[in-house]
Amino acid sequence: MQDERVRYNDSDLQEFKKLIKDKIEKAEKDLQLIRESFINDQNNGTDDTSPTFKAFEEGAETLSKEQNSILAGRQEKFVRDLKNALIRIENKTYGVCRVTGKLIPKERLLAVPHATLSIEAKNMQR
């Protein structure tokens, strides 16, 4: 009887690790850009102080800040999920569906490297 769980071999795990590290680097740069954009939105410039446009600008500016805040939150979660995937690689549990215990197809992990569910498990959630 074989009681060992199915998992990706070490060479596959290293391939995923490189992919994830590259994605983390890009995601952190994107997050930095979002944060800088948010900081730059808070300037008190006098570029256009015409009263007729002021109300429209303030509404658009508030919307833009809210959108940046939402984007930043999503990006932070994405980075956190990718870092958690690196931990799973170190534990050699990466690529194993947390519901079914089956191996998540490599194609899915290449497209969504932080996935913890197979398509089968994802569909069961609906």
Automatic annotation (TrEMBL):
Pfam families: zf-dskA_traR. Residues 93-122 form the Zinc finger DksA/TraR C4-type domain. InterPro entries: Znf_DskA_TraR (IPR000962). Gene3D superfamilies: DksA, coiled-coil domain. One of its GO terms (molecular function) is zinc ion binding. Keywords: Metal-binding, Zinc, Zinc-finger. The keyword Oxidoreductase does not apply. A zinc finger (dksA C4-type) spans 97-121. The keyword Zinc-finger applies. This is General stress protein 16O. It comes from Chryseobacterium aquaeductus.
